[in-house]
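Hi there,

I know you've been waiting on this one. I reran it after we fixed the sequence typo, so this is the corrected version. Both the input and the resulting structure follow.
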Amino acid sequence: MKRILWLSGFLIWITLSTSFAAERMTVMVDKANVRSGPGNNYDVIWMVEKYHPVLIVKTSGEWYRFRDFEGDEAWIHKSLLGKTPAVIVIKDNINVRSGPGTNHPVLFTVERGIPFKVIERKSPWVHLEHADGDKGWIHQALLW
């Protein structure tokens, strides 16, 4: 009986330890279709732009189900994603500065939902680049 209980516990542990862990990835094409299901035959429900970060929660063949910064879930083809570090702005009217601190001049402002590639981090600031080439620094508390 002890042997059966031990074996059952071991199998449960193996199952839990090998379950899929969420992975953060980044859209690497200028525009990507996001679909309602895992295939080209499913409806396009929205589009995302380059450097949009996503959290992969499930896979189905070549398709990844993801969760975004708003908690929405949808499907995207894996060929559109990469592992480049990226973030997205989570507040409106955010100042993008020339350096890592509020003592640096504001270069431009951005709205909620704008994605950026991460160039470097100087905690608590992040040096970023938009797909159009604009660069600057944003405080990490304003990013996902």
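Quick highlight: Helices lie at 2-17.

Best,
R. S.
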